[in-house]
Amino acid sequence: MIDADTPTMLDRTEPAHCTVCCCALTNKILMVLFMVLLVFAILFGNLVTLAVVLGTKHFHTPQGYLKASLAVADLAVGMFVVPLSIYAEVYLMATDSAPEWTSYNSQSVSFHPCNVIGPIFAGCTLVSITTIFLLTIERSIAVLKPLHKDSVITRKRTTILIVLSWVGSFFLAVSPMLFSSEMALEYNSCSRMCNYALGTIGEFPSQAWNILLLFPAFDFTLLGGTVVINIISMSSIRQHSRRRKHLAESECQSTTKPTFSDIKAARTIGTLTVAFTASFTPIAVFVVGNVLGNKWCNFSFFAFWILASNSCWNVIIYSVRDQKFRLCAHKLLSREKTQPKAKQMNTSGNKD
């Protein structure tokens, strides 16, 4: 999302800016193939998630609402962010020249696609972090205070928090453009994505510097809080598991302890947290290196695309960790396969 002083597409011809993924024709083809497969994986996985959550009454819960919000944020990455990169790279391969808009930043033209796509990627990343934080809070209450779960965590409160997370995240995403005339967006030749950059090449002005620090400050605060809460929840789950080995649970005890489904859900959210932290860490390293003056062109490509690929991980985690989700997804896909056959049989029966 953040880029201090990396080249635009005009610099693509310079050897120093030829990234390891895109120098040879074979590497370019593999890169575009990866992007296309990533789009299909993101769209398929998150559409299945939305279909299961919205179409199954069991998932009409605060946790289900949060998972749906996370799926929508991931869908936006697959529908808008990655396709723009595919278009730019295919255009470059077909014509041997980059699209004209990639040669300029957003301050040089009246309309630049990155003015839309850049904040979408940044906003959806922030929404994902916020939603995982809210999921962690929701599960920690279910594990630590099971008797208060239904009164504290309501669908109305969850919906309000989801709306606030989207509004706040996208406000933060566009804040560099709103509060500093020195910030711009450009299609970066290293990351092959729309990134924030300084409108003029040079040293960081103090105002732009402070605005850029909002991203890592926000991300690390929420991710750090999420990790701490997950550790507390997992510690409580371990203690509960040990007690179950030594004591036979009475009816009274079962009402004051988290249910098995709550424990499984907490572990699933813990896995989500680990996956997102792993995908976000390279970006964090890149930002720190960028601040210190390192361009790390090759590394920036892998950092940004590892983060983008996280948009298709969630459905895999749900399928592996959540048996009910897996069964509902299987029923949904089986129903889609049997429907065309049923229509074919009806059509042939009508002809007879």
TrEMBL record:
Name the record gives this protein: Olfactory receptor 4D9
Subcellular location: Cell membrane
Record Gene3D superfamilies: Rhodopsin 7-helix transmembrane proteins
Lipid bilayer topology: Multi-pass membrane protein
Organism, as annotated: Cottoperca gobio
Top-level taxonomic group: Eukaryota
Keywords on record: Cell membrane, G-protein coupled receptor, Membrane, Receptor, Transducer, Transmembrane, Transmembrane helix
Family recorded in the similarity comment: Belongs to the G-protein coupled receptor 1 family.
One GO term describing the cellular component: plasma membrane
Transmembrane segments: 29-53, 65-88, 116-137, 158-179, 211-237, 269-293, 299-320
Matches recorded under InterPro entries: GPCR_Rhodpsn, GPCR_Rhodpsn_7TM, TAAR
Database matches in Pfam families: 7tm_1
Segments forming domain G-protein coupled receptors family 1 profile: 45-318
GO MF term list: trace-amine receptor activity
